């Protein structure tokens, strides 16, 4: 692995200079970011699994609630670490993490003392959700012009961030390999999920998102979160599952089929595999993600015609939007500290929105593709009865090969998803380096 200390030092320098520029532009003296307030379920004393405010993790990989960063021009970053004495919950010791030398650290055992020390900071922009604690400070809470700027900077990944995303690929790839083995030996959705988390070496709470482990027809529910223990020996597995490393995510999907699956579904799977790889191969800076998404529709339309699911020309498929019921989601989204990372629809640091292509409401990335972006490429082809119904019932019914569609519906769908880094003149597929198939 590259030397994390020096990568993190470079990452911090980039953060510091962009924060100084934005503080100057937005006329604040100081940026305070907190790691966040836990969320307690209504009428309960149980907390939801804690998710650190992503702005905080952009600066510091420390986990846990109520830590504060104080960022000022020309000053080393201050970290106020909340470390109460506690016999109910474990408070992990700080240890000697690689990032420590970049911060001036003070420890606080009470929130009152921590709050009391947050003073003499001038005009403060605060990012976070600790409004109860800070309400009387007179700070500007989550000012949009500043957050839009910081979101924009988050879409250009530093070498440190790329290394973290690569490590998350390695872990995710281990999980996918183990899950594939489990599927081929006849395991249930629940057992496949267990194989994934065991191989990654974490608990469900440590995953970047809930695994999608779909056997057969469940693959057609895009975010299927069930884990049926009673269904074994599936013909198709759609597994959408990733891992986290230092807060950064991987988001990987593979679809596998056994010989018991319909022959045409296997041909579609081969075709989608080629489409996904060809799409990735075409990537370079200067393209527009919305055009890239349209290209996926074109290619999927051709496949649907070749495989006799649609009885018309590929041009007509595209013109009439007949791919929409088969591929209803966006081709991909930015990836980083959040699985659906920020700024995919931003046109500029000021936050102007990039236009959403008509008829594609679920596309999460609509801006130009630039060096340093990391995003997913995840074309899909599904048999979703709810979306096909309207075509079955209207004038386009004869275009669709319903007999074949009905035969393929029990096999659910196909999605193949890699995470790609845009380089100076092309791209690097971060996922395939660790999970070739
Ligand atoms: N795992 C959710 C997605 O691919 O967007
Ligand atoms: Mn995704
Ligand atoms: Mn995914």
Structure notes:
The protein has 437 residues and is an alpha+beta fold. 34% of the residues lie in helices and 15% in strands. The protein has twelve helices and 16 strands. The protein has helices at 4-26, 54-59, 111-117, 131-134, 144-154, 159-184, 189-200, 263-281, 289-306, 314-320, 385-393, 402-408; strands at residues 30-34, 68-71, 77-82, 103-108, 124-127, 140-141, 212-215, 236-241, 244-245, 248-249, 252-257, 374-377, 380-382, 413-415, 418-422, 427-429. The strands form five sheets. It has a six-stranded mixed β-sheet. It has a three-stranded antiparallel β-sheet with strand order 7-8-11, sandwiched between helices. Helix 1 packs antiparallel against helix 5 (144-154) and helix 6 (159-184) runs antiparallel to helix 7. The chain is globular and about 70 Å long. The model has no long low-confidence stretch (mean pLDDT 97). The protein binds glycine and manganese (II) ion (MN) (2 copies). One manganese (II) ion (MN) is lined by residues 240, 251, 253, 417.
SSE topology:
Layout: H1 4-26, E1 30-34, H2 54-59, E2 68-71, E3 77-82, E4 103-108, H3 111-117, E5 124-127, H4 131-134, E6 140-141, H5 144-154, H6 159-184, H7 189-200, E7 212-215, E8 236-241, E9 244-245, E10 248-249, E11 252-257, H8 263-281, H9 289-306, H10 314-320, E12 374-377, E13 380-382, H11 385-393, H12 402-408, E14 413-415, E15 418-422, E16 427-429
Parallel strand pairs: 1-5, 3-4, 5-6
Antiparallel strand pairs: 1-2, 2-3, 7-8, 8-11, 9-10, 12-15, 13-14, 15-16
Glycine (GLY) binds at residues 209, 240, 251, 339, 378, 417.
């Amino acid at each position: 692995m590259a030397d994390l200390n020096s990568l993190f030092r470079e990452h911090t320098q980039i953060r510091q200079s962009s924060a100084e520029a934005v503080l100057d532009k937005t006329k604040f003296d100081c940026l305070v970011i907190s790691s966040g307030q836990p969320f307690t379920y209504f009428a309960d004393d149980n907390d939801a699994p804690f998710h650190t405010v992503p702005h905080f993790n952009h600066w510091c990989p420390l986990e846990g609630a109520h830590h504060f960063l104080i960022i000022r021009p020309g000053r080393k970053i201050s970290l106020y670490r909340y470390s109460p004495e506690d016999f109910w919950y474990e408070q992990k010791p700080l240890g000697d993490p690689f990032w420590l030398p970049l911060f001036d650290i003070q420890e606080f055992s009470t929130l009152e003392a921590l709050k009391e020390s947050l003073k003499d900071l001038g005009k403060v922009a605060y990012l976070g959700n600790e409004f109860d604690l800070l309400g009387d400070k007179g700070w500007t809470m989550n000012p949009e012009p500043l957050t839009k700027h910081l979101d924009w900077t988050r879409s250009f990944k530093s070498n440190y961030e790329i290394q973290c995303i690569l490590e998350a690929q390695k872990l995710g790839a281990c999980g996918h390999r183990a899950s594939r083995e489990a599927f081929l030996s006849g395991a249930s959705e629940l057992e496949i999920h267990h194989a994934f988390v065991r191989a990654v070496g974490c608990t469900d709470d440590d995953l970047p998102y809930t695994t999608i482990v779909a056997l057969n027809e469940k693959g057609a529910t895009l975010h299927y979160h069930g884990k049926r223990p009673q269904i074994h020996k599936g013909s198709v597995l759609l597994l959408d599952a990733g891992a986290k490393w230092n807060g950064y995510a991987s988001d990987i999907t593979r679809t596998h089929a056994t010989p018991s699956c319909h022959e045409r579904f296997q041909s579609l799977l081969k075709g989608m595999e080629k489409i996904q790889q060809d799409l990735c191969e075409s990537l370079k800076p200067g393209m527009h993600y919305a055009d890239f998404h349209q290209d996926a529709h074109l290619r999927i339309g051709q496949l649907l015609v070749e495989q006799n699911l649609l009885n018309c020309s590929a041009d007509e498929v595209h013109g009439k939007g007949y791919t929409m019921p088969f591929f209803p989601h966006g081709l991909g989204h930015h990836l980083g500290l959040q699985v659906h990372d920020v700024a995919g629809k931003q046109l500029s640091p000021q936050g102007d929105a990039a236009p959403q292509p008509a008829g594609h409401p679920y596309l999460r990335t609509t801006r130009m593709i630039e060096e340093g972006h990391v995003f997913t490429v995840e074309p899909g082809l599904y048999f979703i009865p709810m979306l096909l119904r309207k075509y079955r019932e209207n004038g386009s019914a004869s275009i669709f090969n319903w007999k074949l569609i009905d035969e393929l519906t029990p096999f659910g769908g196909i999605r193949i998803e890699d995470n790609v880094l845009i380089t100076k003149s092309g791209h690097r597929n971060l996922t395939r380096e660790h999970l070739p198939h």
